[in-house]
Amino acid sequence: MLDPTQALGELHRHLDGAVRISTILDLARQHDLVLPADTEETLAPYVQIDGSEPGLLAFLDRFHYLTEILVDEDACRRVAYENVEDAAKEGLSYVELRFSPWFMAERHGLAAEAVVEACLDGLRAGQQDFGVEAEAIGILSRSYGPELCQRELQALLSCRDRLVAIDLAGDEAGFPAALFRDHFRQVRDAGLHVTVHAGEAAGPDSVWSAIRDLGAERIGHGFRAVEDPELVAYLVRNDIGLECCPTSNLHIQAVASYAQHPIRQLAEAGVRFCLNTDDPAISAISIAHEYEVAGPAIGLSPQQLAQAQAESLNLAFISSDRKQALRDRHQQRL
């Protein structure tokens, strides 16, 4: 369960997977876009997923309407701004929001650099208006291949001073991390942190490669590390935390049920982790759901959930001083 005395952060939330249904409807009306429904209630089944239609393809299909309305830079800016507002409504003190500029740009032929600028402007405005500290993580979408990812990286590095990290996401099994060694050498040379989606659609070798080939400091998902005791020990020894997203894992059928999720076993082995929503618009959840519903269903103890909540700031890509300031500010609000 959430501990109200502790500040709460979220480290794995996709900005383009957290678009309000009301915003989809509003922008569609403004730009004469055709949707399959015209009210929030009737559009929801096309955007959200539940246990009746699980699986990766069904999950990815829901992104269609989230990106369909990203017609210009103003739309991207609005979505980023509303992400911060929604984080504030969920009680978050800190959030790292990640996005792939190419994924957001391609539907309507936007410039990737313009998408980066718009998203970062939206996050900055949201911070000022809602009092949540928000940082940005740029995504390289590995499914596009190394050449296009290099162009995506250049768009992100044009704003490197306004990012905290770069992530690698997409088809984990089809595009192994080793293909992107040079990209992440550039990332590290730019002074940015590294987090990588690994150990979800592929096994422990994917996690090892994220660490050894790309220099990952955190792992997105990573629960299949449980299959390799040597890797589990390495994660513990080197303080490499997992950005765990239980409901998302369930919705793409990466795990069969909450009860079978490996994060409890990993937690018992001493692996650091926090809970996250991943794509909350698609999963139709809040961060509280992961702590109050998913976590207990997995079998995490109150102590493990409290530690995960603490790690949601401890593992953040910000300075120790900022982390402590966030904790102090939260205490002052109680």
CATH class equals: Alpha Beta
Number of domains: 1
Strand pairing plus helix content: what structural class?
Answer: alpha/beta
Average pLDDT works out at 96
Counted beta strands:
8
**CATH-defined superfamily:** Metal-dependent hydrolases
- CATH fold name: TIM Barrel
Q: What kind of sheet is the major sheet?
A: 8 strands, parallel
How big a fraction of the residues is strand? 5-15%
Q: What percent of the residues sit in helical stretches (DSSP H or I)?
A: 40-55%
Uncertain parts: none
Strands side by side in the biggest sheet = 1-2-3-4-5-6-7-8
Count, helices: 17
Radius of gyration: 19 Å
Shape: globular
- Label the CATH architecture: Alpha-Beta Barrel
**Could you tell me how far the N terminus lies from the C terminus, measured between alpha carbons in angstroms?**
18 Å
SSE sequence, one letter per element: EHHHHHEHHEHEHEHEHEHHEHHHH
